[in-house]
Amino acid sequence: xxxxxxxxKYKRVLLKLSGEALMGNQGFGIDPEMINNIAxxxxxxxxxxxxxxxxxxxxxxxxxxQNSAKLGMDQASGDYVGMLATVMxxxxxxxxxxxxxxxxxxxxxxxxxxxxxxxxxxxxxxHLEKGRVVIFAAGTGNPFxxxxxxxALRAAEIDAQAMLMAKNxxxxxxxxxxxxxxxxxxxxxxxxxxxxxxxxxxxxxxAVALCKNSDIPIIVFDFxxxxxxxxxxxxxxxxxxxxxxx
Length: 246
Prior knowledge:
The structure is a single chain. The protein is of the alpha/beta class. It has 9 helices and 11 strands. The chain has helices spanning about 5, 30-45, 65-70, 75-100, 120-130, 145-155, 190-195, 205-215, 230-235, and strands at about 10-15, 50-55, 105-110, 115-120, 135, 160-165, 175, 185, 190, 220, 240. Helix 3 (about 65-70) packs across helix 4 and helix 6 (about 145-155) packs parallel to helix 8 (about 205-215). The two termini are about 25 Å apart.
């Protein structure tokens, strides 16, 4: 069945989940209600026949740049701890997804064979072709690169048709913080170059540039909006689309 026949605009996508999205209204860790809601949304997406990969952040447990400075660590060491935090989140998400009947695999950029599979590009693609959700953990495996950059890299490597950026209580890209400025203007569509030149900070410049070079549109949306991912996959205008104006 073609994408058009299935009613889907995108058949293979990468979902970037921030660690903060897993916290819910907590100040730290993982909110059980939130992660179960996320699992249900993902299950609905998989049932549509979508090939779904996920990159999850670790900011709900440890933020490399911020915490390393506070603790007197060098940034590289802090970034490695942050990578381990993403593995913890990925493992929890995998467990909840499996409990909900969703087949999934965690692939890590740092080898830890007793916990997850090592990242191999063609292995990841094969899992997707078999209908399994793939969760990429440990970022790129290198310090000084964020999970935004890891998400853009993995999206390019698996030939994703779009990258979905799930935000916490922010429904798109604005010219300034809508939580601080009531007159903030929301963009329905914006180019890669505009995001970079206007320094909108929705994600790392390196990640935006990589998606531009790979011609992968980025869709920024509020994950708490029920059914948002399904609507995006079916071509509805949700949040803000970066690139993809063809």
